[in-house]
Amino acid sequence: MKKITLRAVVFAAIGVAPALAADLPPGVYTKAPPIGTIYDWSGFYIGGNIGYGWGQSHDTSTITNTAGMTLFTNTDKTSMNGVVGGGQIGYNWQMQRMVVGLEADIQGTDEKGSRSFTCPTTCSPGTFLGIVLPNGTLLLTPGPAVPATMSQKIDWFGTVRARAGALVDPKVLVYATGGLAYGEVKASEAIGVVPAAFSSTSTNIGWTVGVGVEGALGGNWTAKLEYLYVDLGKVSGNYLTSFAAFGSGFLNGSYSSRITDNVLRIGVNYKFGGSAARY
Asked: Is residue 161 part of a domain?
């Protein structure tokens, strides 16, 4: 008899529970929400990153004499690869499954590379043989070839970017990013058999675009994997040597290089404003 009565009470409670839940005021949970299914991405954050950069210089180097005559031109590409590391700061706004924000970062790099080329007999003056042709042409022996080496390094760069993405999971953000880039490029050139070295530094403004994925680690910490394409525009410089040039005066040199970079990096961020998770 007791077993039958207990069963009747259980069945009655099961039947009444939905009706009672329907009568509860709005906003009162009938059961606890799943723990960890909601994550708040909004707020300030700061972090660090490290990665690798595959930079490239699309360079044109020109050698002239004092009179401005072009004696030799060489165009080529130089790879500038190396470690990249730095820090970032930003702010996110979350709108349901969308997250938008602003981020700025500054990076130090070890990206550098060099290339060599040789100006043939057109750069240096020849030796007069003491023979003058009937038309007045002087017979000369060819001048020696002039070797040169161009080296470039991305000392540092920074970006100021917008970010916009979607939550593929409450704790996983996939985003695109783009904006302003700026950085410093150092160039040096050694010219001649006994090299004379020259260097210059340029700070340029360009642009960047990229993509990334960021996930919550727990508490206020997140981790990200990010790719950026960086275009720092053109850098240029010129120099004057004391080497005699074909035609007149001395050898002058100049270069114009477009600097680009491909950066893959990992990073961590710490979000301010209390716990990043809300329940």
From this structure: yes
